[in-house]
Amino acid sequence: MSKLRRAAGIARSMVTYWRPGRQDALRELYAPFVIPGDLVFDIGAHVGDRTVAFADLGARVVALEPNPTLLPWLKRFAKRHPGVMVVDEAVGSKAGRGRLALSESTPTLSTLAADWRKRVVRANPTFRDVRWHSEVVVTVTTLDELIARFGRPSFCKIDVEGHEAAVLEGLSQPLDAVSFEFVAGTADVAVACVRRLVALGDYDFNAVVGEGRDFVARHWVDGASIVEWLETGAGGASSGDVYARRRESRP
Fold this sequence. Notes:
This protein is of the alpha/beta class and about 250 residues long. It has a single domain, classed as Rossmann fold (3-Layer(aba) Sandwich), CATH 3.40.50.150. The chain contains 9 helices and 10 strands. A 7-stranded mixed β-sheet has the order 3-2-1-7-8-10-9, sandwiched between helices. It has a 3-stranded mixed β-sheet with strand order 4-6-5. Helix 7 links the parallel strand 7 and strand 8.
């Protein structure tokens, strides 16, 4: 049964993240943030759909994914792009080791965030049937360590299932542009991310709902405004991504 669940979970992920037309949409979404030659960090690369979009825009990509179920698929897609480096590590507030909870039926929902896991299944209807069947010990690095190893990225995408704030705790300098996931019922995680970025630099914010490509606000807003939007229900969205860009960086 375990093998069948894993196979079905991977199949669902492929249908969701590699459906026809999705790569075109992702390139359109990220084009304002990524130009040829840029360095991009993809934290929580999953099955590599966004990694490939960054690479197709001409970026050098460091793609991090600690889930042993997803890693072979990420490597399979990444090997077609010489500018992509896959790193089988998680990212957190400090370097060391961590326990990654694995969901066989929904492998892209693996997480280091034990408290978030307990809360989200109660607070968000789309997560109520999610189960994490096992744990694996993984190596954990930090954004500061990654910058020391690979350089400072122009864009950093973070999608790590409730662990986003911990990832940003491991960053001590502002980046030009960052995105991080928000999930209804656990808005405090995204709010902590906003506050961390505001402490590091002068940022404007916007958001994309679900797997869409359109920003919710016509004009980018300040940290207080995006926090209010998140804390008042994010327009009813179940999940999505918050985008932050430094005012000093290029438009």
